[in-house]
Design goal:
five-stranded antiparallel sheet, 8 helices, about 20% strand, alpha+beta, elongated, 9 strands, four-stranded antiparallel sheet, single chain
Length: about 230
Amino acid sequence: MLGEWYAALSLVHLAAAIQIAGFLVRDQIVLRIMILIGTCLYLAYYYIEPAVPLWDAIVCGVLMAVANLYMIVRLLFDRRPGVFDEEDLLIYGAIRQIAPGEFKRLMKRAHKGQASDNMVLTSEGNVPEYLYFLLGGDLTISKQGAESRLQAPMFIGDIAYILNQPASATTTLHSGGRYARWRASDLRKFLEKHERLQSALEVAFNRDLASKLAGSKPTNGDAVAA
């Protein structure tokens, strides 16, 4: 009897040790797998140790294990290498630090197009309706009489998007330029449920702003950024 008690106790200790070790791991998949293993050991304890199996605890444990297993499968699918076209790779390279599956979900909400004539993307003093990523072509940025000229790839409207305020400059995409865009209101709702992707975009915006300030070519006055 004492040996059985020690065996059951060891089962609990092993389950706890595995789950505690899992919480020290940064990789989400490894963490969830270790928690799943610990949960299975606890389920074995609930069934073997008591004179009558703890069915309520077992049912709850099974439900937790199924939910965890679902998330493991979803994370594995997100990490599968994706097949992207050249334009998508430009955007993917600008955002970085996100899984291919997360990027696919982001791009499902994007619309790609090409400017048949000079196309105003943002107007100084007006709240932009869209967040843009330029895939190709030249752009003119005008602010209080100063102008700068930039070349793709880059985000446009990112500052106004982050601050949810009117654009600080007027940006015009020259004829033939290609772009991808997201409706700002829809993108905000989407990112509320995807915090990791939102953080990655904010980092990308900061990096993009630094690049625009460094690479802008003034045509009239000082350099400006969108």
